[in-house]
Specification:
By secondary structure, this protein is mostly beta strands. The chain has five helices and 34 strands. It starts with 5 loop residues before the first helix and ends with a strand.
Protein backbone atom coordinates (compact mmCIF):
# COMPACT_ATOMS: atom_id res chain seq x y z
CA UNK A 1 0.00 0.00 0.00
CA UNK A 2 1.13 3.58 -0.59
CA UNK A 3 2.00 5.51 2.52
CA UNK A 4 -0.41 8.11 3.86
CA UNK A 5 0.37 11.66 2.92
CA UNK A 6 0.09 13.81 6.03
CA UNK A 7 -2.35 16.20 4.36
CA UNK A 8 -4.71 13.43 3.25
CA UNK A 9 -4.45 11.62 6.55
CA UNK A 10 -5.40 14.75 8.48
CA UNK A 11 -8.25 15.49 6.08
CA UNK A 12 -9.70 11.99 6.38
CA UNK A 13 -9.19 11.91 10.15
CA UNK A 14 -11.06 15.20 10.44
CA UNK A 15 -13.87 13.79 8.29
CA UNK A 16 -14.14 10.74 10.56
CA UNK A 17 -14.34 12.99 13.62
CA UNK A 18 -17.00 15.14 11.99
CA UNK A 19 -18.98 12.12 10.82
CA UNK A 20 -18.89 10.58 14.29
CA UNK A 21 -20.60 13.68 15.63
CA UNK A 22 -23.50 13.44 13.18
CA UNK A 23 -26.52 11.51 14.51
CA UNK A 24 -28.42 9.30 12.12
CA UNK A 25 -32.00 8.43 13.00
CA UNK A 26 -32.47 4.84 14.10
CA UNK A 27 -28.78 3.92 14.47
CA UNK A 28 -27.93 1.36 17.08
CA UNK A 29 -25.14 2.17 19.51
CA UNK A 30 -21.83 0.82 18.30
CA UNK A 31 -20.56 -2.30 20.08
CA UNK A 32 -17.35 -2.91 18.12
CA UNK A 33 -15.25 -1.64 15.23
CA UNK A 34 -14.58 -3.82 12.19
CA UNK A 35 -11.31 -2.59 10.64
CA UNK A 36 -10.18 -3.25 7.08
CA UNK A 37 -7.62 -1.97 4.59
CA UNK A 38 -8.26 -1.67 0.86
CA UNK A 39 -5.76 -0.80 -1.85
CA UNK A 40 -7.08 0.11 -5.31
CA UNK A 41 -4.41 -0.99 -7.78
CA UNK A 42 -3.83 -2.68 -11.15
CA UNK A 43 -3.83 -6.48 -11.09
CA UNK A 44 -4.05 -9.54 -13.32
CA UNK A 45 -6.87 -12.02 -12.71
CA UNK A 46 -8.26 -15.15 -14.33
CA UNK A 47 -11.64 -14.19 -15.75
CA UNK A 48 -11.99 -16.70 -18.60
CA UNK A 49 -9.32 -19.31 -17.91
CA UNK A 50 -7.07 -21.36 -20.23
CA UNK A 51 -6.19 -21.04 -23.02
CA UNK A 52 -6.90 -17.33 -22.55
CA UNK A 53 -4.34 -15.29 -20.63
CA UNK A 54 -5.16 -13.51 -17.41
CA UNK A 55 -6.92 -10.15 -17.76
CA UNK A 56 -5.44 -6.85 -16.65
CA UNK A 57 -7.94 -5.20 -14.29
CA UNK A 58 -8.16 -2.63 -11.52
CA UNK A 59 -8.90 -4.32 -8.22
CA UNK A 60 -9.12 -3.96 -4.47
CA UNK A 61 -6.32 -5.90 -2.76
CA UNK A 62 -5.55 -7.65 -6.03
CA UNK A 63 -8.94 -9.36 -6.47
CA UNK A 64 -12.15 -8.57 -8.30
CA UNK A 65 -14.55 -8.42 -6.65
CA UNK A 66 -12.63 -7.04 -3.70
CA UNK A 67 -12.76 -8.60 -0.24
CA UNK A 68 -16.19 -9.23 1.26
CA UNK A 69 -16.39 -6.81 4.18
CA UNK A 70 -18.52 -8.09 7.08
CA UNK A 71 -19.78 -6.21 10.12
CA UNK A 72 -22.53 -6.81 12.68
CA UNK A 73 -25.57 -4.54 12.67
CA UNK A 74 -25.02 -1.59 14.99
CA UNK A 75 -21.22 -1.89 14.91
CA UNK A 76 -18.81 0.52 13.27
CA UNK A 77 -16.92 -0.09 10.05
CA UNK A 78 -13.51 1.52 9.59
CA UNK A 79 -11.81 1.17 6.21
CA UNK A 80 -8.45 2.64 5.26
CA UNK A 81 -8.37 3.08 1.47
CA UNK A 82 -5.07 3.57 -0.36
CA UNK A 83 -4.93 4.64 -3.99
CA UNK A 84 -2.25 2.86 -6.03
CA UNK A 85 -3.84 3.79 -9.36
CA UNK A 86 -2.70 6.51 -11.72
CA UNK A 87 -6.13 8.15 -11.40
CA UNK A 88 -8.13 9.81 -8.62
CA UNK A 89 -10.59 7.57 -6.82
CA UNK A 90 -12.99 7.38 -3.86
CA UNK A 91 -15.17 4.68 -2.28
CA UNK A 92 -18.95 5.01 -2.12
CA UNK A 93 -20.79 2.67 0.27
CA UNK A 94 -23.80 1.89 -1.86
CA UNK A 95 -27.09 1.69 0.05
CA UNK A 96 -25.65 2.49 3.48
CA UNK A 97 -27.31 5.29 5.45
CA UNK A 98 -24.24 7.07 6.69
CA UNK A 99 -23.00 10.60 7.46
CA UNK A 100 -22.46 12.91 4.51
CA UNK A 101 -18.66 13.11 4.97
CA UNK A 102 -18.36 9.34 4.48
CA UNK A 103 -20.41 9.00 1.26
CA UNK A 104 -17.40 8.94 -1.06
CA UNK A 105 -18.45 11.41 -3.78
CA UNK A 106 -15.49 13.49 -5.00
CA UNK A 107 -15.79 17.25 -4.51
CA UNK A 108 -19.30 16.85 -3.05
CA UNK A 109 -18.55 14.98 0.18
CA UNK A 110 -14.75 14.70 0.18
CA UNK A 111 -11.64 15.55 -1.85
CA UNK A 112 -10.74 12.80 -4.31
CA UNK A 113 -8.08 10.36 -3.15
CA UNK A 114 -5.11 11.26 -5.32
CA UNK A 115 -2.64 8.65 -6.60
CA UNK A 116 -0.34 7.59 -3.78
CA UNK A 117 -2.63 8.97 -1.07
CA UNK A 118 -5.14 7.46 1.35
CA UNK A 119 -8.43 8.18 3.08
CA UNK A 120 -10.14 6.67 6.14
CA UNK A 121 -13.87 5.92 6.08
CA UNK A 122 -15.63 5.20 9.37
CA UNK A 123 -19.34 4.94 10.15
CA UNK A 124 -21.94 2.92 12.04
CA UNK A 125 -23.97 0.32 10.16
CA UNK A 126 -27.51 0.84 11.37
CA UNK A 127 -29.17 -1.50 8.89
CA UNK A 128 -28.57 -5.21 8.40
CA UNK A 129 -28.47 -6.40 4.82
CA UNK A 130 -26.60 -6.75 1.55
CA UNK A 131 -24.72 -3.66 0.38
CA UNK A 132 -21.63 -3.01 -1.73
CA UNK A 133 -18.78 -0.58 -2.32
CA UNK A 134 -17.31 1.01 -5.44
CA UNK A 135 -15.59 4.19 -6.66
CA UNK A 136 -17.56 7.33 -7.40
CA UNK A 137 -14.74 8.95 -9.40
CA UNK A 138 -14.84 8.12 -13.11
CA UNK A 139 -17.23 5.37 -12.07
CA UNK A 140 -17.94 3.99 -15.54
CA UNK A 141 -14.29 3.16 -16.18
CA UNK A 142 -13.27 2.20 -12.66
CA UNK A 143 -16.17 -0.25 -12.18
CA UNK A 144 -15.80 -1.43 -15.76
CA UNK A 145 -12.22 -2.39 -14.94
CA UNK A 146 -13.19 -4.35 -11.81
CA UNK A 147 -13.30 -2.04 -8.76
CA UNK A 148 -16.17 -3.19 -6.53
CA UNK A 149 -16.89 -5.49 -3.60
CA UNK A 150 -19.64 -6.72 -1.28
CA UNK A 151 -20.43 -5.22 2.12
CA UNK A 152 -22.49 -7.54 4.33
CA UNK A 153 -24.09 -6.22 7.53
CA UNK A 154 -25.13 -9.28 9.50
CA UNK A 155 -28.30 -9.44 11.57
CA UNK A 156 -27.88 -9.50 15.33
CA UNK A 157 -29.36 -13.02 15.39
CA UNK A 158 -28.32 -15.71 12.88
CA UNK A 159 -30.75 -16.47 10.05
CA UNK A 160 -31.73 -20.18 9.95
CA UNK A 161 -30.15 -21.32 6.68
CA UNK A 162 -27.54 -23.94 5.86
CA UNK A 163 -25.31 -21.61 3.85
CA UNK A 164 -25.15 -17.80 3.48
CA UNK A 165 -23.64 -17.03 0.05
CA UNK A 166 -22.98 -13.94 -2.05
CA UNK A 167 -23.08 -13.74 -5.85
CA UNK A 168 -21.53 -10.56 -7.24
CA UNK A 169 -22.91 -10.38 -10.79
CA UNK A 170 -21.07 -8.39 -13.43
CA UNK A 171 -20.28 -8.32 -17.10
CA UNK A 172 -17.17 -7.35 -19.00
CA UNK A 173 -16.50 -6.05 -22.48
CA UNK A 174 -13.56 -8.21 -23.60
CA UNK A 175 -11.75 -8.60 -26.90
CA UNK A 176 -10.88 -12.07 -28.35
CA UNK A 177 -7.68 -12.20 -26.29
CA UNK A 178 -9.57 -11.68 -23.02
CA UNK A 179 -8.39 -8.08 -22.56
CA UNK A 180 -10.79 -5.30 -21.52
CA UNK A 181 -11.93 -3.24 -24.51
CA UNK A 182 -10.61 0.24 -23.79
CA UNK A 183 -13.43 2.38 -25.20
CA UNK A 184 -14.80 3.86 -22.00
CA UNK A 185 -16.74 7.07 -22.58
CA UNK A 186 -18.13 5.91 -25.92
CA UNK A 187 -20.97 8.29 -26.80
CA UNK A 188 -23.00 5.55 -28.52
CA UNK A 189 -23.01 3.58 -25.27
CA UNK A 190 -23.89 6.72 -23.30
CA UNK A 191 -26.84 7.67 -25.51
CA UNK A 192 -28.29 4.15 -25.71
CA UNK A 193 -28.38 1.49 -22.97
CA UNK A 194 -24.88 1.96 -21.56
CA UNK A 195 -21.75 -0.18 -21.74
CA UNK A 196 -23.06 -3.71 -22.10
CA UNK A 197 -20.41 -6.40 -21.84
CA UNK A 198 -20.06 -9.72 -23.62
CA UNK A 199 -18.85 -11.83 -20.67
CA UNK A 200 -20.88 -12.41 -17.50
CA UNK A 201 -19.14 -13.38 -14.27
CA UNK A 202 -20.17 -14.47 -10.80
CA UNK A 203 -17.68 -13.40 -8.14
CA UNK A 204 -15.16 -12.54 -10.84
CA UNK A 205 -15.21 -15.87 -12.68
CA UNK A 206 -17.18 -17.55 -15.46
CA UNK A 207 -18.66 -20.47 -13.56
CA UNK A 208 -19.80 -23.63 -15.27
CA UNK A 209 -21.40 -25.16 -12.19
CA UNK A 210 -22.42 -24.33 -8.65
CA UNK A 211 -22.48 -27.25 -6.20
CA UNK A 212 -25.52 -27.79 -3.98
CA UNK A 213 -26.92 -30.65 -1.89
CA UNK A 214 -30.47 -31.91 -2.00
CA UNK A 215 -32.54 -30.62 0.88
CA UNK A 216 -30.27 -27.75 1.91
CA UNK A 217 -31.52 -24.18 2.31
CA UNK A 218 -29.42 -21.32 0.93
CA UNK A 219 -29.51 -17.62 1.57
CA UNK A 220 -28.25 -16.21 -1.70
CA UNK A 221 -27.27 -12.53 -1.78
CA UNK A 222 -27.42 -11.26 -5.36
CA UNK A 223 -25.60 -7.99 -6.18
CA UNK A 224 -25.63 -6.45 -9.67
CA UNK A 225 -22.41 -4.44 -10.06
CA UNK A 226 -22.51 -4.22 -13.87
CA UNK A 227 -22.22 -0.84 -15.57
CA UNK A 228 -25.42 -1.29 -17.54
CA UNK A 229 -26.65 -4.89 -17.75
CA UNK A 230 -30.04 -5.68 -16.22
CA UNK A 231 -30.39 -9.28 -15.04
CA UNK A 232 -33.65 -11.26 -14.91
CA UNK A 233 -32.61 -14.51 -13.25
CA UNK A 234 -34.73 -17.62 -13.71
CA UNK A 235 -33.91 -20.52 -11.36
CA UNK A 236 -35.65 -23.13 -13.54
CA UNK A 237 -37.94 -25.44 -11.54
CA UNK A 238 -36.78 -24.04 -8.21
CA UNK A 239 -38.94 -21.60 -6.24
CA UNK A 240 -36.77 -18.85 -4.74
CA UNK A 241 -38.37 -16.60 -2.15
CA UNK A 242 -37.29 -12.95 -2.08
CA UNK A 243 -36.70 -11.94 1.56
CA UNK A 244 -34.84 -8.63 1.12
CA UNK A 245 -34.42 -5.99 -1.58
CA UNK A 246 -31.52 -3.52 -1.62
CA UNK A 247 -30.58 -4.88 1.80
CA UNK A 248 -33.93 -4.27 3.50
CA UNK A 249 -36.36 -7.01 4.57
CA UNK A 250 -39.55 -7.57 2.62
CA UNK A 251 -42.41 -9.99 3.16
CA UNK A 252 -41.19 -13.30 1.67
CA UNK A 253 -42.63 -13.72 -1.80
CA UNK A 254 -42.05 -15.37 -5.14
CA UNK A 255 -40.51 -13.11 -7.80
CA UNK A 256 -42.97 -11.80 -10.38
CA UNK A 257 -43.10 -14.13 -13.40
CA UNK A 258 -40.50 -16.25 -11.63
CA UNK A 259 -37.65 -13.87 -12.51
CA UNK A 260 -35.48 -11.87 -10.13
CA UNK A 261 -34.93 -8.56 -11.92
CA UNK A 262 -31.90 -6.51 -10.87
CA UNK A 263 -30.82 -3.28 -12.51
CA UNK A 264 -27.29 -1.99 -11.97
CA UNK A 265 -26.68 -1.25 -8.29
CA UNK A 266 -29.65 -3.31 -7.10
CA UNK A 267 -29.60 -6.30 -4.75
CA UNK A 268 -31.92 -9.12 -3.73
CA UNK A 269 -31.59 -11.66 -0.94
CA UNK A 270 -33.35 -14.91 -1.78
CA UNK A 271 -33.97 -18.09 0.15
CA UNK A 272 -33.48 -21.08 -2.12
CA UNK A 273 -34.60 -24.51 -1.02
CA UNK A 274 -32.62 -27.07 -3.02
CA UNK A 275 -35.39 -29.55 -3.80
CA UNK A 276 -33.75 -31.29 -6.74
CA UNK A 277 -32.74 -34.96 -6.74
CA UNK A 278 -29.20 -36.06 -5.84
CA UNK A 279 -27.12 -36.10 -9.01
CA UNK A 280 -29.47 -33.79 -10.96
CA UNK A 281 -28.77 -30.30 -12.33
CA UNK A 282 -30.78 -27.15 -13.09
CA UNK A 283 -29.86 -24.13 -15.20
CA UNK A 284 -29.98 -20.57 -13.87
CA UNK A 285 -30.67 -18.39 -16.91
CA UNK A 286 -30.88 -14.67 -17.61
CA UNK A 287 -34.19 -13.90 -19.33
CA UNK A 288 -34.22 -10.12 -19.42
CA UNK A 289 -36.42 -9.25 -22.42
CA UNK A 290 -33.88 -7.07 -24.25
CA UNK A 291 -31.27 -9.82 -24.37
CA UNK A 292 -31.05 -13.34 -25.70
CA UNK A 293 -31.68 -15.97 -23.05
CA UNK A 294 -28.37 -17.36 -21.89
CA UNK A 295 -27.13 -19.75 -19.24
CA UNK A 296 -25.53 -18.08 -16.24
CA UNK A 297 -24.62 -21.22 -14.27
CA UNK A 298 -25.86 -24.74 -13.59
CA UNK A 299 -26.85 -25.85 -10.11
CA UNK A 300 -25.31 -29.30 -9.78
CA UNK A 301 -26.58 -31.61 -7.04
CA UNK A 302 -24.16 -33.83 -5.20
CA UNK A 303 -24.74 -37.58 -5.29
CA UNK A 304 -25.01 -37.57 -1.49
CA UNK A 305 -28.39 -38.30 0.14
CA UNK A 306 -30.66 -35.35 0.86
CA UNK A 307 -30.25 -33.38 4.08
CA UNK A 308 -32.53 -34.83 6.76
CA UNK A 309 -34.49 -32.55 9.07
CA UNK A 310 -36.53 -33.19 12.18
CA UNK A 311 -39.28 -30.84 11.03
CA UNK A 312 -40.26 -28.98 7.84
CA UNK A 313 -38.52 -25.70 7.08
CA UNK A 314 -40.52 -22.58 7.93
CA UNK A 315 -40.48 -19.39 5.79
CA UNK A 316 -37.63 -17.00 6.59
CA UNK A 317 -38.78 -13.53 7.67
CA UNK A 318 -35.98 -11.07 8.41
CA UNK A 319 -36.30 -8.48 11.21
CA UNK A 320 -37.08 -4.92 10.10
CA UNK A 321 -34.40 -2.27 9.94
CA UNK A 322 -34.78 0.99 11.90
CA UNK A 323 -35.89 3.19 8.99
CA UNK A 324 -38.22 6.13 9.74
CA UNK A 325 -41.68 5.70 8.23
CA UNK A 326 -42.80 8.62 5.99
CA UNK A 327 -46.16 10.30 6.62
CA UNK A 328 -47.71 10.08 3.16
CA UNK A 329 -50.62 12.32 4.09
CA UNK A 330 -48.34 15.26 4.88
CA UNK A 331 -45.46 14.56 2.54
CA UNK A 332 -43.90 17.25 0.35
CA UNK A 333 -43.90 16.23 -3.31
CA UNK A 334 -41.23 16.79 -5.94
CA UNK A 335 -41.16 15.57 -9.54
CA UNK A 336 -38.09 14.52 -11.53
CA UNK A 337 -38.32 13.94 -15.26
CA UNK A 338 -35.46 12.03 -16.86
CA UNK A 339 -35.12 12.87 -20.54
CA UNK A 340 -32.77 12.44 -23.48
CA UNK A 341 -31.02 9.58 -25.23
CA UNK A 342 -31.55 8.23 -28.69
CA UNK A 343 -35.19 8.00 -29.78
CA UNK A 344 -36.07 10.43 -27.00
CA UNK A 345 -38.22 13.55 -26.95
CA UNK A 346 -35.63 15.92 -25.44
CA UNK A 347 -34.89 18.71 -27.91
CA UNK A 348 -33.15 21.32 -25.72
CA UNK A 349 -31.73 21.56 -22.20
CA UNK A 350 -29.97 24.00 -19.88
CA UNK A 351 -26.18 23.62 -19.94
CA UNK A 352 -23.76 26.08 -18.31
CA UNK A 353 -26.54 28.62 -17.85
CA UNK A 354 -27.83 28.63 -21.42
CA UNK A 355 -30.34 26.61 -23.39
CA UNK A 356 -28.78 24.47 -26.10
CA UNK A 357 -30.07 21.92 -28.57
CA UNK A 358 -29.47 18.17 -28.47
CA UNK A 359 -26.64 18.35 -31.00
CA UNK A 360 -24.73 20.81 -28.82
CA UNK A 361 -25.33 18.61 -25.78
CA UNK A 362 -23.86 15.64 -27.60
CA UNK A 363 -20.85 17.67 -28.74
CA UNK A 364 -20.19 18.41 -25.06
CA UNK A 365 -20.43 14.72 -24.13
CA UNK A 366 -23.98 14.79 -22.74
CA UNK A 367 -27.02 12.79 -23.80
CA UNK A 368 -29.43 13.10 -20.85
CA UNK A 369 -31.03 15.71 -18.60
CA UNK A 370 -32.92 15.88 -15.30
CA UNK A 371 -35.86 18.30 -15.33
CA UNK A 372 -34.48 19.77 -18.54
CA UNK A 373 -31.06 20.64 -17.10
CA UNK A 374 -27.56 19.17 -17.34
CA UNK A 375 -24.91 19.66 -14.67
CA UNK A 376 -21.20 18.96 -14.89
CA UNK A 377 -19.39 16.78 -12.36
CA UNK A 378 -20.66 15.88 -8.91
CA UNK A 379 -20.79 19.18 -7.00
CA UNK A 380 -23.37 21.66 -8.20
CA UNK A 381 -26.45 23.59 -7.13
CA UNK A 382 -29.08 21.31 -5.58
CA UNK A 383 -32.11 20.62 -7.74
CA UNK A 384 -34.36 20.63 -4.65
CA UNK A 385 -33.86 21.45 -0.97
CA UNK A 386 -35.71 19.36 1.61
CA UNK A 387 -36.43 20.36 5.18
CA UNK A 388 -34.71 17.99 7.58
CA UNK A 389 -37.02 15.27 8.96
CA UNK A 390 -39.73 16.15 6.43
CA UNK A 391 -41.70 13.34 4.85
CA UNK A 392 -41.09 13.48 1.11
CA UNK A 393 -42.50 11.91 -2.04
CA UNK A 394 -40.41 11.89 -5.20
CA UNK A 395 -42.14 11.16 -8.49
CA UNK A 396 -39.69 9.79 -11.04
CA UNK A 397 -40.78 10.05 -14.69
CA UNK A 398 -38.84 8.18 -17.37
CA UNK A 399 -39.46 10.18 -20.55
CA UNK A 400 -36.98 8.11 -22.57
CA UNK A 401 -36.81 4.94 -24.65
CA UNK A 402 -34.40 3.23 -22.21
CA UNK A 403 -34.37 1.60 -18.78
CA UNK A 404 -32.99 3.59 -15.83
CA UNK A 405 -32.18 2.38 -12.28
CA UNK A 406 -32.49 5.60 -10.25
CA UNK A 407 -30.33 5.65 -7.11
CA UNK A 408 -30.54 8.02 -4.13
CA UNK A 409 -27.59 8.44 -1.77
CA UNK A 410 -27.84 8.69 2.00
CA UNK A 411 -31.45 7.54 2.35
CA UNK A 412 -33.74 4.55 1.96
CA UNK A 413 -37.16 5.02 0.38
CA UNK A 414 -40.39 3.09 0.12
CA UNK A 415 -41.53 2.38 -3.43
CA UNK A 416 -45.22 3.23 -3.09
CA UNK A 417 -46.36 3.04 -6.72
CA UNK A 418 -45.09 2.12 -10.17
CA UNK A 419 -46.80 3.43 -13.29
CA UNK A 420 -49.74 4.61 -11.20
CA UNK A 421 -50.35 1.28 -9.47
CA UNK A 422 -49.65 0.81 -5.75
CA UNK A 423 -46.83 -1.61 -5.09
CA UNK A 424 -47.82 -4.87 -3.46
CA UNK A 425 -44.94 -5.04 -0.99
CA UNK A 426 -44.11 -1.32 -0.50
CA UNK A 427 -40.48 -2.37 -0.43
CA UNK A 428 -37.68 -0.27 1.03
CA UNK A 429 -35.03 0.42 -1.62
CA UNK A 430 -32.23 2.81 -2.55
CA UNK A 431 -32.57 2.16 -6.30
CA UNK A 432 -35.77 1.88 -8.33
CA UNK A 433 -35.84 0.52 -11.88
CA UNK A 434 -37.83 2.60 -14.37
CA UNK A 435 -38.88 0.93 -17.64
CA UNK A 436 -39.17 3.16 -20.73
CA UNK A 437 -41.99 5.75 -20.58
CA UNK A 438 -43.02 4.69 -17.07
CA UNK A 439 -42.95 6.35 -13.66
CA UNK A 440 -42.63 5.55 -9.98
CA UNK A 441 -43.36 7.24 -6.66
CA UNK A 442 -41.03 6.77 -3.72
CA UNK A 443 -41.42 8.10 -0.18
CA UNK A 444 -38.91 8.68 2.62
CA UNK A 445 -38.08 10.84 5.61
CA UNK A 446 -35.31 13.32 4.74
CA UNK A 447 -33.49 12.71 8.03
CA UNK A 448 -29.87 12.75 6.85
CA UNK A 449 -28.46 16.27 6.35
CA UNK A 450 -26.19 17.15 3.46
CA UNK A 451 -26.00 17.30 -0.32
CA UNK A 452 -26.80 13.88 -1.81
CA UNK A 453 -26.56 12.54 -5.33
CA UNK A 454 -29.63 11.34 -7.22
CA UNK A 455 -28.66 9.63 -10.46
CA UNK A 456 -29.11 6.80 -12.91
CA UNK A 457 -26.92 3.82 -12.05
CA UNK A 458 -26.34 2.96 -15.67
CA UNK A 459 -22.95 4.57 -15.21
CA UNK A 460 -22.64 5.93 -18.74
CA UNK A 461 -26.01 7.65 -18.30
CA UNK A 462 -24.86 9.21 -15.04
CA UNK A 463 -21.64 10.49 -16.61
CA UNK A 464 -23.48 11.98 -19.59
CA UNK A 465 -26.08 14.01 -17.73
CA UNK A 466 -28.56 11.86 -15.79
CA UNK A 467 -27.37 13.09 -12.42
CA UNK A 468 -28.45 15.72 -9.92
CA UNK A 469 -28.05 16.74 -6.28
CA UNK A 470 -30.67 17.12 -3.57
CA UNK A 471 -30.04 18.98 -0.32
CA UNK A 472 -31.37 18.09 3.13
CA UNK A 473 -31.02 21.05 5.49
Amino acid sequence: MPLFSRRRFLASAAAVAAASALPLAGRARAQAIATHRLAARPARVTLIGPPHPDTEVWAYNGTTPGPVLRVRQGDRLRVEVANALEADTTVHWHGIRLPHAMDGVPHLTQPPIRPGESFVYEFECADAGTFWYHPHAESAEQLGRGLYGALIVEEREPVPVDRDLTWVLSDWRLDPTGAIVDNFGDLHDASHDGRLGNTVTINGRIPETFAVRAGERLRLRLINVANARIFALDFADHAPAIVALDGHPVAPHAPPEGRIVLGPGMRADIVLDCNGRPGSRATVADRFPRADVYRVVDLVYAEAPAVERAQPLAPVALPANPVAEPDLGHAVRHAFTFGGGMMGTLRTAQLDGRRVDMRTLMQNGFAWAVNGAVERGHAHKPLVTLKRNASTIFEFVNDTAWWHPIHLHGHTFRVVSQNGRPTRHREWRDTVLLPPRERAEVAFVADNPGDWMLHCHVLEHQASGMSSVIRVA
